């Protein structure tokens, strides 16, 4: 295991700048390393170039020159988004140079414990739940990784008894060698990012690296109903803490008779918890287990679960609109996410979906669409989604060009106690730069309807 002193006077290349690359470069410089940053975009004359100059860090931008991987190079810290078929990465791997992501660095320099969370779906919700449970219980904790601040920046300021609650992706985990969380959570594994990983096997292997370096005094929290997750967890030396929404285990966290338990002790009922759906029960169970293991108070855990309205743009309850419950799930950029969103509700659902056409059909969505009473489809995929909706037996369907129009029509399909749900099943890029921008546009359209309906009622 490396320690901070190992980096002193080592020659290190930070490949890819962005937020995490800048943080890694500064951290390494503080540890006494000779740091070069390489960024594909031309940053000549930029604010970033000036900042790196002030830190006495060399910047090479406008491409990836292969001469950077020479015989004097000791280590590469790679932006997670840079693929392994990048020529610099390929040469480094051939030379057997360590190529790691920034979370590896965070683990080396941090004084506190890392509590790491990953999974194909649900990791942001679970990470946030754990962090809030620990915070409200007075456990010194920090939010890091894909949400919160860059992990190595957070790690620099942790103390021995601190907990760094860190969301990690398969991209980050693939670039680890000695990464050693004291508690790891693996929620689920579905097909995702297979283009980056080159296939399902590498994706599973990368997710499983969250358990790789754990010891018997560590805790591996895993979904006992996912056979791939279970297999990966059992390859670890850690103490195993399973969770199950169908009560298939009583060793860890589980649901029985619509009550969430941890090791036989009742925590909260399904009805009391704010988050809807089986997938959120999985997230809550994992969060309960992780929070209790790190000293959270059960009464504070209950309060968090009762008050939690979700992550912004991820099945986020945004309020009631004349008796209709409105949910913003703009982050649902694929079919699987929209399936889970629809299936989270027992009340009738009026669905808004659509967006960028990536060439796929929506046949996999048809079984879930049978729970939808009416739908408005918009954007590039409106015709394909209409076909799926008709195949599912939806009789009330409207097509529009824009999301704003879609929200207007969707509202008038709803009745009191219905759910008005934006869950697009598509990327946002036909009309919006990001899913966040799309979610904000949805909320604006809902506010406009509030004013329109209020005006109609008063007139």
TrEMBL record:
Pathway recorded for this protein: Cell wall biogenesis; peptidoglycan biosynthesis
Residues in the signal sequence: 1-25
Name this protein carries in UniProt: UDP-N-acetylmuramoylalanine--D-glutamate ligase
One Gene Ontology molecular-function label: ATP binding
Xref: Gene3D superfamilies: Mur ligase, C-terminal domain, Mur-like, catalytic domain, NAD(P)-binding Rossmann-like Domain
Coiled coil: none
Domain Mur ligase C-terminal: 313-426
Example GO BP: peptidoglycan biosynthetic process
GO cellular component, one term: cytoplasm
Keywords: ATP-binding, Cell cycle, Cell division, Cell shape, Cell wall biogenesis/degradation, Cytoplasm, Ligase, Nucleotide-binding, Peptidoglycan synthesis, Signal
The protein's enzyme class: ligase
Domain Mur ligase central: 117-291
Annotated function: Cell wall formation. Catalyzes the addition of glutamate to the nucleotide precursor UDP-N-acetylmuramoyl-L-alanine (UMA).
Sequence similarity: Belongs to the MurCDEF family.
HAMAP family found in the cross-reference section: MurD
């Amino acid at each position: 295991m490396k320690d901070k002193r190992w980096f002193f006077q080592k020659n290190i290349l930070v490949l890819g700048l962005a937020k995490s690359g800048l943080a890694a470069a500064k951290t390494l410089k503080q540890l006494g390393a000779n740091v070069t940053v390489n960024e594909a975009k031309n940053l000549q004359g930029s604010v970033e170039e000036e900042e790196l100059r002030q830190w006495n860090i060399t910047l090479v931008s406008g491409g990836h020159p292969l001469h950077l991987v020479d015989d004097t190079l000791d280590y590469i810290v790679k932006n997670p988004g840079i693929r392994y078929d990048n020529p610099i990465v390929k040469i480094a791997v051939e030379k057997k140079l360590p190529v790691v992501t920034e979370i590896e660095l965070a683990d080396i320099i941090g004084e506190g414990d890392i509590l790491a969370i990953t999974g194909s779906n649900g990791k942001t919700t679970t990470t946030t739940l754990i962090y809030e449970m620990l915070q409200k219980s007075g456990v010194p904790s920090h939010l890091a990784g894909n949400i919160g601040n860059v992990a190595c920046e957070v790690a620099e300021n942790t103390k021995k008894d601190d907990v760094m609650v860190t969301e990690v992706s398969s991209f980050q985990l693939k670039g680890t060698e000695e990464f050693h969380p004291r508690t790891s959570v693996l929620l689920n594994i579905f097909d995702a990012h297979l283009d980056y990983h080159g296939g399902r096997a590498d994706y599973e292997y990368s997710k499983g690296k969250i358990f790789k370096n754990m010891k018997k005094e560590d805790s591996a929290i895993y979904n006992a109903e996912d056979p791939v997750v279970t297999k990966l967890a059992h390859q670890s030396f850690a103490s195993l803490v399973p969770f199950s929404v169908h009560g298939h285990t009583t060793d860890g966290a589980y649901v029985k008779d619509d009550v969430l338990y941890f090791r036989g002790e009742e925590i909260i009922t399904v009805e009391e918890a704010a988050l809807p759906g089986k997938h959120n029960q999985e997230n809550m169970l994992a969060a309960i287990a992780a929070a209790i293991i790190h000293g959270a108070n059960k009464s504070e855990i209950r309060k968090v679960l009762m008050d939690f309205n979700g992550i912004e743009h991820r099945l986020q309850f945004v309020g009631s609109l004349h008796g209709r419950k409105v949910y913003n799930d703009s982050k649902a950029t694929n079919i699987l996410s929209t399936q889970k969103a629809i299936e989270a509700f027992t009340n009738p659902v009026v669905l808004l979906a659509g967006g960028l056409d990536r060439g796929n059909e929506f046949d996999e969505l048809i079984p879930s669409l049978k729970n939808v009473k009416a739908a408005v489809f918009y954007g590039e995929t409106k015709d394909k989604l209409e076909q799926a909706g008709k195949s599912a037996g939806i009789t009330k369907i409207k097509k529009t060009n824009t999301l704003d129009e879609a929200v207007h029509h969707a509202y008038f399909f709803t009745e009191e106690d219905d759910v008005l749900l934006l869950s697009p099943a598509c990327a946002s890029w036909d009309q919006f730069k990001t899913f966040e921008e799309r979610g904000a546009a949805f909320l604006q359209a809902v506010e406009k309807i509030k004013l329109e309906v209020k005006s109609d009622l008063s007139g």
